[in-house]
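At this stage, I wrote out one protein's amino acid sequence and its backbone structure tokens, and that material follows here:
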Amino acid sequence: MGSCENVKNGKKLEEMVRKIEEEFWVPVELLKELSDDMVLMMQKGLEDEESSSIKMLVSYVDSLPSGHEEGCFYALDLGGTNLRVMQVKLQGNRTIELKAESYMVPPKIKIGKLHELFDYIAEKVSHVFESVKADFDTVPGKKRELGFTFSFPVHQTRINSGTLLDWTKDYDAKDAIGKDMVVELSKALEKRAIDVNVTALLNDTVGTLAGGRFNNKNVVAAVILGTGMNAAYIEQSERILKPYGLPPKSGQMVINTEWGNFNSSLLPLTDYDCALDSDSPNHHKQILEKMLSGRYLGEIVRRILLSLADDAALFGDIVPPKLRQPYVLGTDIVSAMHGDKSTDLSVVGKCLEKVLEITNVSLEKKKVVVKICEVVATRGARLSAFAILSILKMLGKDKTSAGETVVAIDGSLFGKYEEFKLCLQKTLADELLDEEVSKMVVLRQFKDASGIGAAVVAASQSIYD
């Protein structure tokens, strides 16, 4: 490539990066407008979920743990990436003894037949039950009891039943929509002669809320920021106007918002977002989730890098073939490159070579890659902050500083992507909340919260009490 061509491409690259920065920046005024819009959608969802993009699903968890629960219970946690099987011994003083196994769900299982998914789950449950058999005090006629955390939207009419509304993330198991996930799990467990009662079905955010409350009495909401994104919080039952059964005696109900499906004309969608949505199997759904969750951040970065390579020769005359492969760039790689503090950006160089088979990248081009990671992650973190503000508004905690307000957070984006986490916290505290209120709002990660929450809710639903 001649020197004149290099100069031309250099200027084109600068212009494209500047334009991308502008397109992906979300000013505070827009964040506040988006929050108002989300609150409106949440309120509509409490009245009639069909008229809102945010379903506000009733969880049938109407009381949260005290921390004094006791006994040996089991939890099954099916998330966007992993399956976890746990034995949880509740010791009555906000402490537990935990044994857990984690498995990465194979891609072919995620998109195969429904019975194959649950057969896979039952196989792993069987393995864990065998390994902890000596820990379970067998009582004649008494079965083990299990809480099932299921990270996908379901319609529930009671605590131990729920029909699948839609797959999200990269799951698409066949013939599943409308089927009861507890019934399907129980059938698979019975096939393997596993003696267990599934006493509770709950979303992972509901599990995280219950697990967080078990640890800390000031937890009032939970947010998942991982492969997918969602939130749950404690609502006053009198504000739930859609029919769902008898009002709970507690006067409260945990709501699973399913806010990843939030859609609004105010969302600052770019051409990259629209193309990603168009190419996804669940297009026109989970729009907010596709702008910021771990499943999609890496893919947005890949699409931007590809456009820079195509139109401004970011990586030279030839576009690296791997860069055209959808979802080849994981958010974990984006996090590693974004966080590279070395003077020569050696981590960026290694990631580009290992994942995209791109070598001999100049320091200036590496800086462009880091800038794109930063731009995409910053937008995601700022959008996450407005969504959390919306939950605080629903709880009436956005203006008052009376006592500590704890939001339990789980997921790899918050837990492992340091720049994302810091940007989210700073945006919420410095731009969206008053100074006095921000001092009292705490975003706190609780280890294994969703699984522990499932076990605690299973304890509350025990048929042997």
